[in-house]
Specification:
By secondary structure, this protein is an alpha/beta fold.
């Protein structure tokens, strides 16, 4: 089983095959600007992704000027689209993200807005046509979503790529 720790920092999750981060480190096997460039894995090649204390570091959107026109990029959407692309059918993605005080607000590298339970509805086909407007052209199956940790300040989410993709 091939597994990946996204945003692993200096030490990747025990038992994972690969560690991906934006900077080199002792356990980083792939350096990648997650959310801004494609993940360095083939389509349908990964069985499990982990993201512990990582997703909150991705900005919701980034604007820049290209000539006379303004452009927008959605790193969170791009990241999850890449995870979806790389997962085998039935492959999973587990996320543990700080969402409450003080864990989310104290770190100056956390990007607003914080992830919420309802954020995952966009990525799991629960928001009608709205996700398509934002370029969310995939839908995970939601397996688990709950608050955990001190004062329920973390959001634990488990999703998977459907075994059969309709479209």
């Amino acid at each position: 089983m091939i597994s990946v720790d996204l945003g692993c920092g200096a030490h990747r999750r025990l038992g994972t095959t690969y560690g991906v981060d934006c900077r080199p480190g002792p356990d980083v096997t792939h350096v990648c600007a997650i959310g801004f460039e494609p993940l360095p894995f083939a389509d349908a090649s990964i069985h499990q992704f982990w993201a512990t204390d990582f997703l909150e570091h991705l900005p919701a959107q980034v604007w820049w000027r290209a000539g006379m026109a303004w452009q927008v990029h959605y790193p969170r959407i791009f990241c999850l689209r890449e995870v979806y692309r790389c997962l085998v059918p039935g492959g999973g993605f587990c996320s543990l993200t700080p969402v409450g005080e003080p864990e989310w607000a104290q770190d100056p590298t956390h990007c607003a807005p914080p992830w919420r339970e309802e954020t995952w509805d966009y990525f799991c086909g629960q928001m009608g046509d709205v996700p398509g407007y934002y370029g969310i052209d995939f839908a995970f199956e939601l397996l688990e979503r709950k608050r955990t940790g001190p004062q329920a300040s973390y959001l634990w989410v488990v999703v998977r790529k459907p075994y059969t993709v309709h479209g």
